[in-house]
Amino acid sequence: MFLLSRAGKLGKAPADGLIDLADVTIYEVVFQGTHRLCHGRSTNGKAVELLLRLPQEHAVKAGDTLSINAKASDAVILLE
């Protein structure tokens, strides 16, 4: 299963109307010109790998732990 959300729709901190998706520890960040491509692992003990495209204004570095949030209406779920 894949959960997709546009980079501009993800949040790094809880806010009204957002669903907490996961806490993620970032281990690699690459600036792609319009966004930051981040590889991370969930911190819930299940070692779920995540690939995040964060907006360029989100200053993120390897070792940071983020709380990833999104609006349910902005997410798309693809079943494999």
Task: Characterise the protein shown here.
The chain has 80 residues and is mostly beta strands. It has one domain: OB fold (Dihydrolipoamide Acetyltransferase, E2P). Helices cover 0% and strands 50% of the residues. The chain contains no helices and 6 strands. It has strands spanning 2-4, 19-31, 35-42, 49-55, 65-70, 76-78. A 4-stranded antiparallel β-sheet has the order 4-3-2-5, with no helix packed on it. A two-stranded antiparallel sheet has the order 1-6. The radius of gyration is 12 Å and the shape is globular. The relative contact order is 0.38.
Tags for this model:
single chain, 80 residues, mainly beta, 4-stranded antiparallel sheet, two-stranded antiparallel sheet, 6 strands
Q: What's the oligomerization state?
A: single chain
Unreliable residue stretches: none
**Percent range of helical residues:** under 10%
Helical/strand content category: mainly beta
The tally of domains stands at: 1
Percent of sequence in beta strands = over 45%
Number of helices: 0
Shape: globular
The helix/strand order is EEEEEE
User: What is the CATH superfamily classification?
Assistant: Nucleic acid-binding proteins
Sheet with the most strands: spatial strand order: 4-3-2-5
How far the N terminus sits from the C terminus, by CA atoms, comes to 6 Å
Largest sheet: 4 strands, antiparallel
Number of strands: 6
CATH class reads: Mainly Beta
